[in-house]
Structure formats: structure tokens, C-alpha cells
Amino acid sequence: MTAEEKDELFYRDTESIAFPKLDDHQLAQLESLGARQTIRAGEIIVKAGQREFPMVLVISGELEVYEDRDGVEQILANPGPRDFLGEVSMLTGTSSLASYRGKAEMSEVLLVPAAKLRWALAELPGVGEPLVQAFMMRRERLLRDKEFAGLRILASPRCSAGHRIDDFLDKNHVVHRLIDATTAEGLAICELHELTPAGLPVLIASDGTITPDPTILDVARIAGLLRPLSTEQDPELLCDLAIVGAGPAGLAAAVNGASEGLETVVLESFAPGGQAGSSSLIENFFSYPTGISGGALTSRAQLQAHRFGAKFSTPSRALTLSFAEGEYGAELRIEGSMTVLRSKCVILSTGAQYNLIDAEGREKFESMGVYYAATKMEAKFCKDNTIIVVGAGNSAGQAAMFMSEVAEKVIMVIRGGDLTKSMSSYLSNRVTAQSNIEILYHTQVQKMMGDDRLKSVEILNSKTGEVRTVETAAVFSMIGARPCTEWLPPEILRDEKGFIKTGHAVADAPAWRNADRVPYPFETSRPGVFAAGDVRSGSVKRCSAAVGEGSMAIENVHQVLGTYS
Ligand SMILES: Cc1cc2nc3c(=O)[nH]c(=O)nc-3n(C[C@H](O)[C@H](O)[C@H](O)COP(=O)(O)OP(=O)(O)OC[C@H]3O[C@@H](n4cnc5c(N)ncnc54)[C@H](O)[C@@H]3O)c2cc1C
């Protein structure tokens, strides 16, 4: 089956999930949440780029959903009676991807404000389930749609800033396209907007606004990801629970905390999903017999947390944690924000960050040949090339298997002499059986070379001293990680490797010595502050373990707050 045929089948099979008609009962339930309005032909209801836009339900008449692409309108849909307009952005609070207006001379619509809709999705399962399914499917269809533009990054092919924006939007599941400025399409956009190569990269928003050389914060703001946690006049924000880090552990905590009524705020420094978000296929996660991509798994979890009312802020790096007297005793300061987040309890789920390969020239090729994840995005650069995977753990094995499907050859560079010591046996069996994977034992990458992009590497055999030069387009660094705990105060005790100690391991900490209880299993050396997932000392570094720990930490939070029911 060709790619076009596969797409056609996908769109046909998913049509009824993405565009269901609402029945009388569902209409009646939504009616009480919104207000009816009459719309004339051409009257705009929602504009692309608008935040907190309402769900629009067509009672009578016909509307038009359209995208304005460089001054040319593309009609995306013509919804009629019992159809509803809306998508994932309504749950996450990000910007609308398209504009809606009246098409029939006169239409009657029901407008349901986004906040009321979010409440309904959590409280009214009869309405919530089909709507959430439809929103998710609409987003999946848009992400697959090569014609839909969404946000556009226009960049030269060798521009690392362009790739970084692409990566940021990709990991945050924002519909976007990276356009090569040297292609016919790219040149046409440059001409239309009078852009020169020196003025790239630029970000073109859904409403046509152009931002030259945007920072990640600019991109987040334009995509609607970065929301002020409070108003400018409000120097502090109070919550029951602050979760720092939105990998699987933080997301599981957010879903459980918010669904159980805790006022929950989640801070994430780059993109929800954490390390799991960079895994192409997680095969050992409960209930997915054929595996699931880390991105899909964690984006669903984020939607679920949104649905229960958890507030996310991305990118928002927690810079400091300090303590004060009173109910909201934990204070978090956030990068780029004047607001102090004050919380009754904190869950630290900041996971770990990849170790860097100690090879000459590496920094020059970050994102331009050196990668820390092996997903479809990186696969684009590896087609029919030789690529190198450094590492011998499960993530290295997964990367090698995944890339062996697109690359001509995969070379695994391993320090030790045995793959089975650090890799699950099912995976090491597959890796060794794969004909286009070569395993080089007792080796390390010592030098990286190229111009704008990586072209070749030098590999040293530590046993024989032999040095081999290999031409390659990409090196995947899969050599473990270190905990993201350097920003924490000394009150939060850590083990010799920097992972946060909890439970029995902190029972003798100063704060617990005269306490009238012992620390709960996920509680740190500071009462009311918890740690879950990879960042916790002694944790099992697996996705399902992180999800379990995040969920269980919520139980401990309820015990501390006395909200346990
Ligand atoms: C490529 C790869 C493949 C993998 N494959 C599998 C697999 O198949 N099966 C499996 O079980 N496990 C797998 N793992 C391991 C699994 O992904 C991790 O165990 C899991 O993601 C840990 O979750 P976590 O929430 O504890 O931390 P993380 O996933 O590390 O998430 C932590 C989050 O905290 C954020 N953060 C850090 N510091 C701050 C700060 N100061 N302020 C705000 N936010 C911050 C980070 O940006 C990150 O998003 C894989 C890992 C990788 C890298």
C-alpha cells in the first residue's frame, strides 16, 4: 500500500470518530452550559490564533472553517446541524488553529465557553467521551495532513535554531511545519514576505504574523503554550499541589491529583512527556500489546490532566524551592516569571537528563547530527545513511532497531564487551539478529567532524588502540542520564549520585527528628515535599514505574493535607 493509500484509508476509517453528530440528549446537556447566537454569512465567530475560544455547536444553517495561508483562504470544513467545532486546543487552553465564520445567510449556534466545556468533559461522561475522542482524532488527522499549515517555521536547511523550534513544537504536539527556505515553497514565501536568508528563521503564525528569529519563549507564547500563571498585579499564586516536571511521573500525579479535587499546577521546563516523550516505541507499557510511542502515551495523559482541571505552564523551569511559615509553605520561583508559586505540597518529578558523549567537536553538532532521541523526526535525517548509536542500554537498543528500518546501516558503539548485561534479552536478541546493525564492542566515539552538519566520526577501540573513521549523518547518544536536582536547596537530601532520598532513607533528617510521624514512602527530608519517578533515589527507571510512583505520591499528599477520603 502506498503512503497516499494509507492516508486515504486512515481518513476514511476515522471520519465518524472525528466528526460525530450530537444526539438530542447530548445537545440538551450542552445547552445549559452555553448561549445561543445568530450568525450571518461571513460573520467571524473564532479567529485563528485566538485563545480560550468557545466550542461552537451548529443548531441550524451552515458554517465555514478556514485557514488563511499567505493571503489565500483554504476551506477546511462546512459544518451543519448537530456538528460541533472545537479541538484539543480547547482543553489545553492553546490557540485556535483555524477560523470559523457563518456560511448560510443565517445560522443559529450554541457557544459553550472553554472553561465550562472543560468542566462538562470531566463531569458529564455521556458528553465528555465522544467530544474528547473527536478532539483527539481531529488533532491526529491534522498532524498527518500535509496540506494543513498551522504554525510554520521557515528556515535554511542547516539552521540549528529552526530544528530546535521544530523539536520544541513537535514535543509539545503543536501542529506545525518546518519549511526549507531553499525549496520552491520556501522561496515563494520568502518572496511574498520579502525575507532574505539572513533574516531566517522566522515563525509564521496561523494568523499570518511573522516573528523573526524567535526564542523558544516567543514560540511558546505564539503557540499559546505559555500562559501567565497569574495576573501581573498578582505577585503570587496559591495552590494545593505544585508538580515540578511533566514526564510520566508528573503527568500521572497531575491526573490523579486534579481528578481528586486538588488545585494542581504543573511546571515543565521544555515539553510534557519527559524522556518518555522521546521514545519512538514503548513496548513494555501495560495494556499496549503492540507498543505505543512515548509521545502518544504522554500527550494523552496531559489531555486527561487538563480535562480534570490541572493547570500547565510550558516552558516554565523551576529555579528555586524555598520554605516559609504557614499553610502554603513551599515557594517556587520560575524562570521568566515574576510570580511566586506558593503551594501546600510539592511533588518533584524532574527525572533525569541525558549524559553527553565526551568527544571532541560534539557541541558543534548538537541537533545537527547529534541526537538524544530516535523518533520519526530524527529518522528524516537518517534515511539511507549510516548512523551511529552510542550506548548499550534499552534506549540504545530501541534506537538501533527503529533506525535500522530507515538507515542503510546502524553501528552500535559500546564501551563494554557484552550487550546482554545492560539490555533486556528480548531486545538484545533482536539487535544482534538484525542484518544491518553492526556492533562494535570496547569502542567509543572520540571525535566528531563536519562543516555545518556532522559528516564523520572517529571511533577508538580501547583494547587494540585502532582508530576508525566512519562517514555518518547522525550519532544517537544513549549513554544514561543524571538527575535534574542541582537547583534544589540543601534541605532536600540526595544520594551520592544526586537522586532524591525519600521514606526510610530520610527518617533521620533534621526536619523529621522531632516530628510526630515518620515520612511517607515518597516524602523527602522536608515534610510535604515528595519525589516520584526517575529522580527518586532507588526508583526503577521505567515508564510504568514512574506512572505508579506519581500516582502513589498523590495518596501521600492527601494524607499530609488531611484530604484523604
Ligand atoms: C529514548 C528513551 C527510551 C525509553 N524507552 C523506555 C521504554 O521502552 N520503556 C520504559 O519503561 N522506559 C523507557 N525509558 C525510560 C522512561 O522514559 C523513564 O523512566 C521515564 O520517562 C521517567 O519518567 P519521569 O517522569 O520520572 O522523568 P522524565 O521522563 O525524565 O521527565 C522529567 C521532566 O521534568 C522536566 N524538568 C526537569 N527539570 C525541571 C525543572 N527544574 N523545572 C520544570 N521541569 C523540569 C523535564 O523537562 C522532563 O520533562 C526510555 C527513556 C528514553 C530516554
What is the count of helical runs?
15
Number of strand segments = 29
CATH class of the largest domain: Alpha Beta
Q: Give the distinct bound molecules.
A: flavin-adenine dinucleotide
Helicity, as a percent range: 25-40%
What's the structural blueprint in terms of helices and strands?
Elements: H1 3-18, H2 24-31, E1 35-40, E2 44-46, E3 55-60, E4 63-69, E5 72-77, E6 84-85, H3 88-92, E7 99-102, E8 106-112, H4 114-123, H5 125-144, E9 151-155, H6 160-171, E10 176-180, H7 184-192, E11 202-204, E12 210-212, H8 216-223, E13 236-244, H9 248-259, E14 264-267, H10 294-307, E15 311-313, E16 318-323, E17 330-334, E18 340-348, E19 352-354, E20 370-371, H11 376-379, E21 386-390, H12 394-404, E22 409-413, H13 425-433, E23 437-440, E24 443-450, E25 454-461, E26 467-471, E27 474-477, E28 481-483, H14 510-513, E29 529-531, H15 543-561
The structure holds flavin-adenine dinucleotide.
Give a quick precis of the structure.
By secondary structure, this protein is an alpha/beta fold. It contains 15 helices and 29 strands.
Structure description:
- The structure is a single chain.
- This protein is an alpha/beta fold and 565 residues long.
- It has 4 domains: 142 residues, Jelly Rolls, CATH 2.60.120.10; 73 residues, Glutaredoxin (3-Layer(aba) Sandwich), CATH 3.40.30.10; 195 residues, 3-Layer(bba) Sandwich (FAD/NAD(P)-binding domain); 118 residues, FAD/NAD(P)-binding domain (3-Layer(bba) Sandwich).
- The strands form 7 sheets. Strands 13, 14, 15, 16, 17, 18 and 29 form a 7-stranded mixed β-sheet that branches. The chain has a 5-stranded parallel β-sheet with strand order 20-27-21-22-23. Strands 1-8-3-6 form a 4-stranded antiparallel β-sheet.
- Helix 4 crosses helix 5 and helix 9 runs parallel beside helix 15.
- The protein starts with a helix and ends with a helix.
- Flavin-adenine dinucleotide binds next to helix 9, helix 12 and helix 15.
- The site of flavin-adenine dinucleotide has 38 residues, from helix 9, helix 12 and helix 15.
